[in-house]
Amino acid sequence: MSSSFDDADYPAYTMGRAAEMIGVTPAFLRSLGAAGLIEPERSDGGHRRYSRHQLTLAARVRQLLDEGVQLTPACRIVTLEDRLAAAHRTIVDLGGILTPDDDADVPTHTHQPQTPHEYDQAG
Hints:
The protein has 4 helices and 3 strands, in the order E-H-H-E-E-H-H.
């Protein structure tokens, strides 16, 4: 049986609790909303509510900021990481198989190795 507690997108956490859980200030969470990374749901009283998924994204941005990345690029990186993870889940859900080469943490080759030219060979 599934419940809202199992749903990573269920807006279960108040701003204060969310900030406490990931070790940031409420102002930081508001700044992520202003940057367009996360958009919290609103309770009937107008209070922000965050999901576990949103808190995961916020914590990753905080990590990148701690590493010296500026806010806008950090939000873009986290957005792309999240989209890649979603694409990987879709591939698996559709019966595809991901290999270790599909790991997002492993850089791809930017070009194919070229065959040597005649003038490059000693003769």
